[in-house]
Write a structure and sequence with these properties.
Distance between the termini: 26 Å
Number of helices: 11
Order of helices and strands: EHHHHHHEHEEEHEEHHH
Structural class: mainly alpha
Largest sheet: 3 strands, antiparallel
Number of strands: 7
Helix content: 55-70%
Strand order of the largest sheet: 3-2-6
Radius of gyration: 28 Å
Strand content: 5-15%
Amino acid sequence: MTLNQNEIDKYLDELITKAERQIDKMFARRLKELRYQLLNMQLKYAKGKRLTYTDLNKYNRMQKEIKIIAEAIDQDFRQLLNIIQELMENQYIENYLRSAYLYEFEAQETMGFGMPALKVVQMAILNKIPQLTLPAVLEDQRNTLVRRISMDISQGLLAGEGYTDIAERIQKSVGFGAVKARRVARTEGHRAQVQGRLDSAAKASKHAELKKIWDGTLDSRTRKAHRKLDGTVVDYNGVFVSIAGGKGVAPGLMFSAADDINCRCSVLFLVNGRKPEVRRARNEEDLNYQRKLANRIDKYMENGLTAKQAEKKAKKEVRPPSLVIPYMTYEDWYKNRIA
């Protein structure tokens, strides 16, 4: 059984997907309530069969309804802020500690990792560009959604549309808002995820030689620039340069919208020249063990066994040494570090 950085990334990506589902449910609920409010406006204010702009514009009715909508959406975005903030904190902490677990076992050295303080985490995941902080981005999206819904109602009524047509306009706007919110969750969650691994590696670099690799998610949605970067190895403190215009220490931290938004690539670290992975209690990479095993295999092959038969017999007789750090599960390692 092994554990490596790619498996950690897969686990963390699943957490992002769970957050996206929460966001979808929140926007679906808002759409349902907006449809109910629109129907209620028809029943309260319409003079004829259809609600008209004139009907709704009397006595500041329009302003009052939009205020109700704005207050409800404001509550939604407060919830959205909490969802994404919690996601980012979890992404950072989980990658920081899970990566640390790998680095210690690969380097065979206890490196003194512990649970990072919440304030340290919050500072680490804070976007250093003021207008791109999470509250600022979500406030802009909230204001845009309120404006769009207000225009949907006004333009629909001015065009003589009924409930169904206006409801379709609102559905498109809410759907647009949901897409943008999911994009923020994935982009910011990914950025926090990468930052957690970078900070974990920074501590590990005091105990081992580290290099980093750009690990691209290679499928039909992968940017051309990131296909080119896939597999690129740089020094621990080095930077990656993208043909899309970005330059930075890791995927998601390239300081370029063309590179960072919706990026799904990861950064991996080589520890003392190897991709770290945790193996069970025997160290099969030990050079002395490998030498003894090879000699025993050669001996049996000289006696007429096939390579496969010789290897099978030799492995029963030549045992790898125990790891310097005895094998333990991540859960046990985690408990020891935060105790």
